[in-house]
Amino acid sequence: xxxxxxxxxxxxxDSVEVPPAPELAEQYPTWMRLFMFxxxxxxxxxxxxxxxxxxxxxxxxxxxxxxxxxxxxxxxxEMIGALAFGKAYNVAAxxxxxMGPAHVLxxxxxxxxxxxxxxxxxxxxxxxxxxxxxxxLTGLWTGGKQAVExxxxxxxxxxxxxxxYTADLGTCAVVGFTCGPAIGAVFAIIPxxxxxxxxxxxxxxxxxxxxxxxxxxxxxxxxxxxxACSSDERRADExxxxxxxxxxxxxxxxxxxxxxxxxxxLALFFVHYYNFAVQExxxxxxxxxxxxxxxxxxxxxxxxxxxxSLIASLAIKYLSRCLDDDILIIVAVLMGMVGSFLLIDSMPxxxxxxxxxxxxxxxxFTLITIAFPFGxxxxxxxxxxxxxxxxxxxxxxxxx
Length: 400
What we know:
Elements: H1 24-27, H2 30-59, H3 64-95, H4 100-125, H5 128-156, H6 162-189, E1 193-194, E2 199-200, H7 204-228, H8 231-240, H9 259-280, H10 283-290, H11 295-319, H12 325-342, H13 358-386, H14 392-399
Helix pairs in contact: 2-5, 2-6, 2-7, 2-11, 3-4, 3-5, 3-14, 4-5, 4-7, 5-14, 6-11, 6-13, 9-13, 11-13, 12-13
């Protein structure tokens, strides 16, 4: 009822209420926030070992060639873990959709727990082979975790946001890669502590940190992922995050994978992972021998290039909105090529330059480090888009 002299105000038909900016809980579903947590800490756990692995094996009396075999067994474990846990995920997601994916992911993480224990005990046993098998089990963890997370995201993420989600996970990974050496530098400067069974120092400290990370991640997965696998949240994901268009009403037939696309992706994956292998194998022993650096300086090197990688990962998130993925992938490959060229020991026509100058080493190492997260996340998106839905997780294992 309107009083005399008062004018009733009618709402404007065209007025639209602007919703407030979404919080993190509204921007990402539960499973995505969980994966961001796991990716950050697993990459922290991975990078904290990189600068200290070579001197750790040397302290146990291992031959320098043994470092290559130890890194190789980690990569082999990743391949086996991705295929095995990827296949297990396919079965579990079909037969036990609520609890199955969580149990598969937790099983892969428990491999990391056992592997980390072996990594620490290798010092007490003075056994490089114990460290070798510890790194193999840690590879099973990271490979299985990658396959499960990427397959789960390919099924649940809105297609229009898949690249952005992949970039967000890549950003978490790069932040983890940056924080790992920083934490390792802390272990390098604190006094060592001797217990009955182990010595806690710059070499075993990262292994103990891995154990804590794995146990924490396993608890988080078992608590949160079953909720994300419930049918209620699946429907909420589809309504809240998936954009609606006219084509959604028509089911798109599952198409066979593109053989040419698969081979191109595999070739580019090999390029990026080959450059990344420089970080895993020769960087630490090279700078220790060539530039006489100490362990703290090596850790700071990884922290510094990690900051640049973080900037590159953040750039992907926004560049992917205005540029095609293939253009960004080409840019990443070119950066890797230039970085690799700069890391050649001696330039043509300069036979006396037997040592890599420090500025050129830092420039080349920075470029190949930036190229990895820049191109890897985009290639993951392309890889997920190629194959039929049911075989994506197995294809993910083949990629790793």
